[in-house]
Design goal:
With 197 residues, this protein is α+β, with helices and mostly antiparallel strands. It has 9 helices and 5 strands, in the order βββαββαααααααα.
Length: 197
């Protein structure tokens, strides 16, 4: 099991990034909450990782905060929640907010996340309430990270599609935002916040 990677960021294309660890390039999928905290391309970063092994793929998931990885692993234990949906959940809200929603039994807030229906929200609350008891992940302070991209708007739409939104829906979410002078991460954050309101 690969539990941690420390290396130089070669590329960032949400929800994936390429990490150079002593000459070996690791492709890592990460939630947007991690992308918000990543340093710029070329800088070194340490990620807590989870390796998902399936018949057709070995996928690494990376997280800036250990609490995010712990929550991701707890989400995978919920019936009907796979790695993609868990990544989408962690991209749509911080681990701290998610834990608060589960502990408060706030299914309405969870339903606003893409791919989460009423039944899934209720299942998350029932199955995770006891497991997350006492877990209060700290929210890290996001900082602006520059992304290597031709167009931040295109990157934002691509990232939203990767998080489970339909292409038309992702485009519509981005169109309603004044994207002038915004990085793709800021556009994604605004789109997700607008959706959750």
């Amino acid at each position: 099991m690969i539990g941690l990677l420390r290396g130089k960021i070669l590329a960032k294309q949400p929800p994936s990034l390429l990490l150079d660890v002593h000459g070996v390039g690791y492709e890592v999928d990460a939630p947007m909450t991690t992308f918000y905290d990543l340093p710029e391309v070329g800088a070194e970063v340490t990620l807590f990782t989870h390796l998902a092994v399936r018949e057709d793929a070995h996928t690494l998931y990376g997280f800036i905060a250990l609490g995010d990885r712990t929550l991701f692993r707890n989400l995978l234990k919920v019936n009907g929640v796979g790695a993609r949906l868990a990544l989408t959940i962690l991209s749509g809200m911080s681990a701290q907010t998610f834990v608060a929603c589960v502990q408060a039994g706030d299914a309405d807030a969870l339903v606003k996340l893409p791919g989460i229906g009423k039944k899934t929200a209720e299942r998350l609350i029932i199955e995770l309430r006891d497991r997350l008891e006492g877990m209060t992940p700290t929210e890290s302070t996001p900082h602006k990270a520059s992304m290597v991209a031709a167009s931040p708007v295109e990157d934002a739409v691509t990232a939203l599609v990767g998080l489970g939104y339909k292409p038309q829906e992702a485009s519509k979410m981005v169109r309603v935002i004044d994207t002038a002078d915004m990085s793709s991460e800021d556009i994604i954050r605004s789109a997700l916040q607008t959706t959750l309101q």
